[in-house]
Amino acid sequence: MAENISTTSSATNSFSSTDTAILDTLIPGYSLISRFVVSRFDIDIASYLQYVILLATFGASFQYLIWYTMNVLERYFVSTAEIRLDDEIFNYFMYWMSRQPHMSKTNRFVAGVKTNGYWSDDDSDDEDDEKGMDELDEPGSGENEPTFDEYWAKLMGRDKYRTLRYTPAEGRHFFWFRGRPLMLERQQQHQSTRYVLNNETLFISCLGRNPTIIKELLNEAQQSYVERDGNRTVIYRGQRLYASRPFAWYRCMARSPRPLSTVVLDQTQKDEFISDIKEYLHPRTRRWYSNRGIPYRRGYLLHGPPGTGKTSLCFAAAGLLGLKLFLLNLDSKALDEDNLSSLFSDLPRRCIVLLEDVDTAGVTHSRGTDSSDKIKEEDSAEQAKEAGGDSNNPENEKEKEKKEEAKPNGITLSALLNVIDGVAASEGRILVMTTNHPEKLDAALLRPGRVDMSIQFGHTTQADIKELFTSIYTTMEGDLPRVAASRRLTNGTHKSVTNGSIHHAYTNGQAENKEKLQQQFEKDQETKIRLQELRVRISRLALEFASIVPNNEFTAAEIQGYLLNHKNAPEAAISGAEVWVQGIREKKRAQSNLIA
């Protein structure tokens, strides 16, 4: 009786040959595995297969339930900010993130020294200079200062090791900000055919439906990114990093502002230039333009011989007004009308765009293909068809390729005019064009609305020569070593000078600091007296030098280059001025003879 029950049970649990074939199709190797398990362990897999399927179904359902629950929580109980690479806020956040203390503790990060939007050579160099300024100041500035060889050895040893920067690697990262836990997720689409960084995205998430903490973080990141520049002038360049990427503005450097007084130009012209820009940037001017339907744009043309200070004036104006400077080279063959329009549309509302040497960019008289040329091409194509010419003929294809190669690449004059003051032209920016030959420019480019003010730069006058000499040899505040200033405060002592008296505060009963401060104050007074005497002496020497160098014959760059060869010896510069003048004249005469 028991044998009959066992037979019936095994018959119920076993599968027919059809069922086994179906299982072999769904689970490859099922028959082989089943026979092996039965022969080895005397266990029929078919008896437990339904439990396995039930467990797998439960696991899949549980996994889906978890995924669905997480989606619901993220949708209704988590706030998320998305940051894309093509937006400048990406640079803000990555700059802030790379300088956070918790980045030194993470075990998944991207390490590098490569320059990009949020790391730059000038930024790292400035940080290193600030750290080592007290040690690596000018040699010979004090009694205990190192020699040049010692100074240079330290400097070269430091420059061998570039500052390492760390940013979060791809994936999820958790960190704390103002007592709140946040999550950063960095994603990259590796399956894209384009460069991988083009598709990089950041996600910042926090618990709760209130995203205020994320906005505070982004505001702090932006403030940290902007404050690193201080009052320096940030310069961008329009270019493309890879052939597959479009043109865009990339930050190339941030330089200390150039004083307007160092630009060699008639003071009246400088004042008119700056006053015109200030009037244009005033809020009431924009409203005045808008009320009268006039496009809110302003253009300037700086023209004159090379080396007369055209670019320097533009850079000084940007530093004086705190504007960003955008440089664009129109001579690039890869730059077309679409890229040019995209660059101008990405400009901020208040900035200076500098187009240098527009006469050499090949757009002075090029208006693209004329309609008459197109008609001639169409007529010749129709005549070729009537003559029985085959469009697929290899000879015809070669002729087409030659014509396409002969067509001019780059920007045409029409494209430039459309970008400057076309219907879709950007507003609020200041356009500055420089040229050495204004007579080569097309009249359409110089009409009012495109060029509203023209400033001519010429050779230096006697007043300019004197000003150049004085600026080169006068001791500036930044020329004094910073080591002496740092030594004034020691052991927690602070001093201030008022009406020739010294007020001091000292800690730990160290009264000897008073005597040190008194000595330092006397040294400072002696230094001021020497500087005043030096200024009087330099002013006298400047008059002597200006009397030797002729007026309206040399550019500011030529005179400055000569003075830099004698930057520590003004008397030597004066004694060799006549020989230098004769040499430059003979050189220019020889060049003119070659051209003739």
Automatic annotation (TrEMBL):
Highest rank taxon of the organism: Eukaryota
Protein location: Mitochondrion inner membrane
AAA+ ATPase domain residues: 296-461
Biased composition (Basic and acidic residues): 367-388, 395-407
UniProt feature coiled coil, ranges: none
Compositional bias of kind Acidic residues: 120-140
Membrane topology field: Single-pass membrane protein
Single GO MF descriptor: ATP hydrolysis activity
One GO CC term, this protein: mitochondrial inner membrane
InterPro entries noted in UniProt: AAA+_ATPase, AAA_lid_BCS1, ATPase_AAA_core, ATPase_AAA_CS, BCS1_N, Mitochondrial_chaperone_BCS1, P-loop_NTPase
Record has Mitochondrion as a keyword: yes
Pfam families (UniProt xref): AAA (PF00004), AAA_lid_BCS1 (PF25426), BCS1_N (PF08740)
Domain BCS1 N-terminal: 53-263
Region entry Disordered, spans: 119-146, 363-407
Record's keyword terms, sorted: ATP-binding, Hydrolase, Membrane, Mitochondrion, Mitochondrion inner membrane, Nucleotide-binding, Transmembrane, Transmembrane helix
Transmembrane parts of this sequence: 48-67
The keyword Transmembrane is annotated on this UniProt entry: yes
Reaction(s) catalysed by this chain's protein: ATP + H2O = ADP + phosphate + H(+)
Database matches in PANTHER family: BCS1 AAA-TYPE ATPASE
Protein family according to the UniProt entry: Belongs to the AAA ATPase family. BCS1 subfamily.
Protein's UniProt name: AAA+ ATPase domain-containing protein
Organism name: Penicillium steckii
